[in-house]
C-alpha cells in the first residue's frame, strides 16, 4: 500500500475532546450494534490480506474485491504471485488506481517475504513496514485483522469520526492514532478500528452524516449535527 502521509486526509470539523464517560458510551454502543466487526476486504490468509490492503490505497474495497476474486484464485501465496509475475498481476488489477506502482510493490514484497521470511507474513510491525509499499497504516491493518493485535489504523473515515465526534481530535493522522490509543478502553481496542471505519463509511459520512439515525449522536460533540427532518428541525 502506498500509505497516505501523516497529514489530514480531509478537512473536517474538530469537536472538543469527549469526557471518558462519553467515550465509554460511544464504544459500548458501537460494540452492541456490531459485536464482531469484520474487514470488508476479501482475503483467504494473511498474505492475501496484505496484498488486498496494499491494493486498497486510493481505491474502494468493492473495487479491490472485484479484482482480487480472480487474482487470488491463481495467486494466494508469495510464491505463486512471483510465478504470475508483474505483467500477469497488472492484468488482474488494471481496474484499480495506481495499478502499475501497486503491481511493482506486490511483486517486491512477495520476493522479500520469500527470501527474508520463508514465505510467511511477519506479525511484527518493523518487519511489515520494511516490505515494499507497506507503511504504518497498512501494517496496522494486517496486525489487527490477521494477527488480532489491538492496533488502530487511521484512514480518512476514522480521521473524520475521531475529529468530528471529539473522540480523539488531531491535526494529523498520527496525532489521531495516538489519541485513539490513549482514550480507547482496553476491552474495546481489538475491534475499535473496524467500528470506527464502518461508522464513518456508512453513518458519519463526509458530505452528509446520518445524524438522525446515528446511535451515538447524543454523545457526539459535533456542533453542526443534521437534524431529523421529520421533526421539523
End-to-end gap: 44 Å
Helix residue percentage: 40-55%
What fraction of the residues are assigned to beta strands by DSSP?
Answer: under 5%
What is the approximate shape?
Answer: elongated
Low confidence ranges: 1-8
Tell me which CATH architecture of the largest domain applies here. Answer: Orthogonal Bundle
CATH superfamily of the largest domain: Hypothetical protein, domain 2
Strand segment tally: 0
The profile of the biggest β sheet is: none
**Structural class of the secondary elements?**
mainly alpha
Q: How many domains?
A: 2
Tell me the number of helical segments per DSSP (H or I, 4 or more residues long).
10
Mean of the pLDDT scores?
93
Give the CATH topology of the largest domain.
Endonuclease III, domain 1
Could you tell me the radius of gyration in angstroms?
A: 19 Å
Briefly, what CATH class of the largest domain? Mainly Alpha
What string gives the helices and strands in order? Answer: HHHHHHHHHH
Please render the helix and strand layout as text.
Layout: H1 20-33, H2 46-55, H3 61-74, H4 78-93, H5 99-117, H6 125-129, H7 136-147, H8 156-165, H9 173-183, H10 189-202
Care to describe what's here?
With 233 residues, this protein is mostly helical. It folds into two domains: 20-38 and 151-223, Helix-hairpin-Helix base-excision DNA repair enzymes (C-terminal) (Endonuclease Iii, domain 2); 46-147, Endonuclease III, domain 1 (Orthogonal Bundle). It has helices at 20-33, 46-55, 61-74, 78-93, 99-117, 125-129, 136-147, 156-165, 173-183, 189-202. Helix 2 packs antiparallel against helix 7, helix 4 packs antiparallel against helix 5 (99-117) and helix 8 (156-165) packs across helix 10. The model is unreliable at 1-8 (pLDDT under 50).
